[in-house]
Amino acid sequence: MTPQSSSSRRRPLRTRHTAVAGLAVLTAALTACSGGSGSSGGAEAAEKPKISVNLSGQQAKAGGPVTVKLADGRLKDVTVADDKGAKLPGKVSANGTSWTSQRTVAPGTAYRVEASTDKGGSAKSSFRTAAPDKVNKVTLAPGKGTTVGVAQPLSITFDHQVRNKAEVEKALKVTTSNGTTGSWGWIKNYDGKDRVDWRPKEYWKSGTKVKLDARLGGIDSGGDDWFVRDYATNFTIGKSQVVKVNLDSKTATLKRDGETVKSMPMSAGTPGGDKASWGGTSVLMSKEGTINMRSETVGLGSSYNKMVDDSMRLTWSGMYAHAAPWNASYFGNTNHSSGCIGMSDGDAGWLYGQAQPGDPFEVTGSGSKGVPDPGNGYGEWNISWSDWQGKSALK
To answer: Same topology for domains 46-131 and 134-238, yes or no?
Structure first.
């Protein structure tokens, strides 16, 4: 009895050892058992699906899709997620033998893979992509959850040059609550950086809700400048307002829903030189309150250095609408500023309270120095719709 008892104790030990070794093989080959409970070790081994992943290790190449293949049977589901839980969308092939992600993997990112078959088998694996040489980041405008005026474009400025403009643009998805027609256009920001804006064909309708999904993670912007994450923003179009600036009558008029709210005397830039105002349409970029304005920052020497109230920025090059009490004798009769739209303290304070970022300032009349470049603030409204569409990389 003793030898038999000893033998019966040793067999389960060998069986357990075989099962452990089998699991190690499964992990290495990304295979999994699909046998039901109570199956013998031999039956389980016969039903192990053979599944492979095209990416593995700690230095996998970024910028391509993930492919999971099954040797026999049909895949039921595959999940590929990064270390933050974001999943790559993908599809199982018609014959069920493979799954391919619809997005590429980002550099410097850890991923886990989970696959299941129609027979109940499952498997897990993981890999990490190689770190990028350089990372390209973006600045989005307007900010998330903001309310803006009817001329505000959706604007993306890139830290580094974008050579693969078409690939980047394809990753940008704009959704509006009312099917607004618009187009992306590539321009140079005032500081020389690459920028792409989405502009409606016409001014937005008040109340429109806008959402951007910038699915950039895993895209090489060109020259090994990688995007390593996605971006998103959303905003709402506020009151329908336009500020009409007439250089001939020297007035600034706020119109809301097409109706005049208030017309104010003003003095714009001195015609005939660098101090002239920009004409055309500029967009209120920001309300900056009381700021120090110095002429040397805009290339006008040492002609002024003032603390200025109710400052509303219209261009990167330094054109504002603001309070200018020192120019009171010129309001309504002479354009005599250094390029800005100056008003009385009372009128500038009132307009500052009514205006919202994204409101267009439409400057008409004689004596301007032309229209600002698209990247000098939001100057794209000075370009025809067909010309703006021509600036898309997907035309």
So the answer is: yes
CATH number of 241-373: 2.40.440.10
Q: Which residues pair with 158 in a beta bridge?
A: 138
296-315-211 Cα angle (round to 5): 145
CATH class of 134-238: mainly beta
Buried-state track 272-309, b at ≥16 Cβ within 10 A, e below 16? eeebbbbbbbbbbbeeeeeeebebeebebeeeeeeebb
Q: Where are the domains of the chain?
A: 46-131, 134-238, 241-373
Amino acid at 389: Q
Taking the C-alpha atoms of residue 170 and residue 377, their distance in angstroms, rounded to an integer, is: 25
Q: Which residues contact 82 (CB under 8 A, 6 or more apart)?
A: 88, 106, 109, 110, 111
- Residue keyed to tokens 């809700």: 209
Closest CA to 144 of 239, 238, 210, 235: 235
| Calpha distance 157→194 (Å, rounded) | 6
Q: Report pLDDT digits (tens) over 16-66.
A: 333 333 322 333 344 333 333 344 444 444 366 678 999 999 999 999 999
- The CATH number for 46-131, chosen from 1.10.530.10, 2.60.40.3780, 1.10.10.10, 2.30.42.10, is 2.60.40.3780
3-state helix, strand, coil in the chain (%, to 5): 15, 35, 45
Element (H, E) at 12: helix 2-29
Residues 258-301 pLDDT 10s: 999 999 999 999 999 999 999 999 999 999 999 988 766 666 66
CA atoms of 325 and 243, how far apart (whole Å): 20
Token output for 156: 């993306």
108-132 b/e (C-beta count within 10 Å ≥ 16 → b) = ebebebebbbeeebebebbbbbeeb
372 upstream amide cis, omega within 30 of 0: no
Q: Measure the CA–CA gap between 31 and 64, rounded to whole angstroms.
A: 23
